[in-house]
Amino acid sequence: MTSLVLPEFLHRVDHQRCRRCKRCVMSCGFGALQFLERVVADHAKCVGCHRCATFCPEGAITIERNPTALRYNAHWSEEHRKAIWRQAESGGMLLSAMGNDKPYPSYFDHLLLDACQVTNPSIDPLREPMELRTYLGSKPERLEFGAGPDGKPRLTVELAPQVQLETPLVFSAMSFGSISLNAQKALAMAAEKCGITMNTGEGGLHKDLYPYSRHVVIQVASGRFGVSPEYLQQGAAVEIKIGQGAKPGIGGHLPGEKVPHEISETRMVPVGTDCLSPAPHHDIYSIEDLAQLIGALKEATRYEKPVGVKIAAVHNVAAIASGIVRAGADFIFLDGFRGGTGAAPTVIRDHVGLPIELAVAAVDDRLRREGIRNRASLVVAGGIRSSADVAKAVALGADVCAIGTAALVAMGCHLCQKCYTGNCSWGIATQRSELVRRLEPDVAAERLVNLVRAWSLELKEILGALGLNAIESLRGSRERLRAVGLDQTTLDILGVKPAGR
Amino acid sequence: MWKKDERIPSGCAISGFINRCGRKESGEAILRSIAAMHERSNGLGGGFAVYGCYPEYAACYAFHLMFESEAARDRVEEFLRRSFVVQGAEPIPTRSVASITDQPLLWRYFLEVRPESLTVGNTFLTEEDFVVAAVMEINAHFDGAYVASSGKNMGVFKGVGYPEEIGRFYRLEEYQGYLWTAHGRFPTNTPGWWGGAHPFALLDWSVVHNGEISSYGINKRYLEGHGYLCRLGTDTEVIAYLFDLFQRRHGLPLSATCLALAAPFWSEIDRLPPEEATIARAVRMVYGSGLLNGPFSIIVANRSGMIGLNDRIKLRPMVVAERGETVYMASEEAAIREICPSVDRLWYARGGEPVVAAMMPLGAEAEAEVA
Ligand code: SF4
Ligand code: SF4
Prior knowledge:
- The structure holds two protein chains of two kinds.
- By secondary structure, chain A is of the alpha/beta class.
- Chain A has helices at 23-27, 51-55, 78-90, 181-194, 229-233, 261-267, 287-300, 317-326, 346-351, 356-369, 387-396, 405-411, 433-436, 441-465, 488-494, and strands at residues 9-13, 33-36, 38-41, 61-65, 95-96, 111-113, 134-136, 145-147, 153-155, 163-165, 169-171, 198-199, 216-220, 237-241, 252-254, 275-277, 307-312, 331-335, 344-345, 377-381, 400-403, 481-483, 497-498.
- Chain A folds into two domains: 9-92, Alpha-Beta Plaits, CATH 3.30.70; 134-498, Aldolase class I (TIM Barrel), CATH 3.20.20.
- In chain A, helix 5 links the parallel strand 13 and strand 14 (237-241).
- In chain A, helix 4 packs across helix 14 and helix 11 (387-396) crosses helix 14.
- Chain A starts with 8 loop residues before the first strand and ends with a strand.
- By secondary structure, chain B is α+β, with helices and mostly antiparallel strands.
- The radius of gyration of chain B is 19 Å and the shape is globular.
- Chain B starts with 9 loop residues before the first strand and ends with a helix.
- The interface between A and B is large, with 43 and 46 residues.
- Residues 13, 18-24, 39, 56-58, 60-61 of chain A line the site of one iron/sulfur cluster.
- One iron/sulfur cluster (SF4) is lined by residues 13, 18-24, 39, 56-58, 60-61 of chain A.
């Protein structure tokens, strides 16, 4: 059937400049370029990933948005019309990748941070210590002391296991299968270097990553891929994945053709079988089932590591989070509706969930009100784009922010949103060896380390301006935020005053 | 009245001394000491805390109250009569001082808790919990009324004016105490609110504070989670409540409380001997929301002693001196020399390291005798 959808991008080559090296042809993972005496583009296949333009030695390539205009219609937007054509052609659900890209408001962009003037001094992070260290795990509400033999106070309670993070950042879950092994290696190497963690996602832990296991959070998801006693022994913490911000309530599907030998081994399934992650865990149909699984995983890991739960931010998120804490989770990973994914039905990605800013505020409030905030750390994710977002999320109540998309972008991802095709030209969301090879773990890790370092430096600068020298003094301190252009109800939910007050 | 949820930053002078044997003296010395730091205040707030001043009512909670109107007084008195046995009630004696105007009605009440009020349904409160709840209730829910202090055998005298004027106004030379603290305030804006002056007190905790708590936002939210309502518009009240929470309710050793309030840096903790490191790490993890971040020097007192504490990078001054059994702490050396020209020892308190001047056991006996 002929497609009625015009190409999204136009790929232009300046043939005067082009020296016919064919590098662009090889770099395109989507087969959009051919060399027929000169470079010829199939515009319809161009996804705008910019791999070719980035590496063209002559700077001969420009990629433009197709300017061909459809008649403007505010209601029947181009996007709606194109979606209908695509569905009329395929009869299937539309798929997307990465996070919700619709222009819903970003509350981060309506929040401003405070700074010190005169009455309290700001602190210069270049001269004074600035502390970002954060511990992930459950803390008791209070400590208890007795007297030791020398008469000095001594702790009489032992703290639950904690993961020490040198900065309040971790890498979000991205499985081997959704991303390449090289991408995972880069994340693991960077996590080790930065003193933070990466997360296996639901695809198991490849043997090559075992050396980094102190900086790896291992996930147990509904498909239970790769979960074995040995797997559980690895890892700094265990995360039960209930949901994901990009597709709350939706499972996963890694088609059999994307399950070659290494993935099959890591996921512990035969080569070529579909990996179906059911929408719910089939042993969790209510909160007490979750409590059992948490208990079982703690037992299996001999109470040596925190066990947390990842959920998508949905409407009733505060009550759900409270239940999860009471079920014994040591941390909650809260994923907002901007969170990324390797593949999701577009309709779900774009229309389900909650903004993370509101979710973290509501959850932090609820846990405080119930006096159980200390019992679990809050890891917050779903569209964290900069250190400013991190600072604001922390002020709203996050202990730690998790970055997935930002980490991929650091490695080269251009957010073309075609991860589900497995053709990622950047060697990230692909298993094609010729593409994977181009992502060198060392180089990608260095980019990640640089990003984490840069954000950490910026966080220190922000803290210094706030007159603080430890991140815990910002955590939950909504007094240091003001809002511009938000209505009263939203202000109440965020617990933030309007600017000027 | 000034709105109870607005915060006013301020800078200040503090001074305090304790006779560790419990020997008492009148308010003249502390007045002279704080007056020596006149430039550190701007006439918009001064106050004093004194311990041992009500021996005749030593078993009662002495409530110092400020009222904006007779109607407010009526409402609060009705509440007090309902909640406590009122052993004494009288206006706080004052004298007129030209520069001091607009004073609220100042009253004090000597209260005993009825044992039966400590059982609410199935929950049993301690006397202190009951008193704290009553103080919070008045401060948060009775318009035009404010509890300045609520401890046994102690009192807070404070108001809008230079501290030495406030001292004369309250006739402090007529009181005898073994522990005195004082505060001169330099608020950065000017609501003339008497309740906003220091010391802040709860039960027999009192705090005078020079500085600004940059972590106020989270300290306040943390305390609110534990039932403390921060409605007094200055960050100092959180210090008093944190002491009450950590020391009285959580029963932390003083060393742990100070670790929480002015925590050592992680890099320092990592270098400590393992046992100490475990404690410090645990305290920071569990009580991180109680860390006082920002510049401060404080003198915290209760019936059994006085603690001086600086923020961990020492952004505010604090001098400590000793002479015999008396320990002095002040923002400036001059304030100490003024009342004790030759000291045995004088030093600058280090950032984050508490200076503790506890009553000597003998002093405790003397105190018991008086009671
Ligand atoms: S990479 Fe650039 S120079 Fe090389 S063939 Fe493509 S367009 Fe021409
Ligand atoms: S990971 Fe690759 S395929 Fe996915 S959005 Fe980024 S560049 Fe595109």
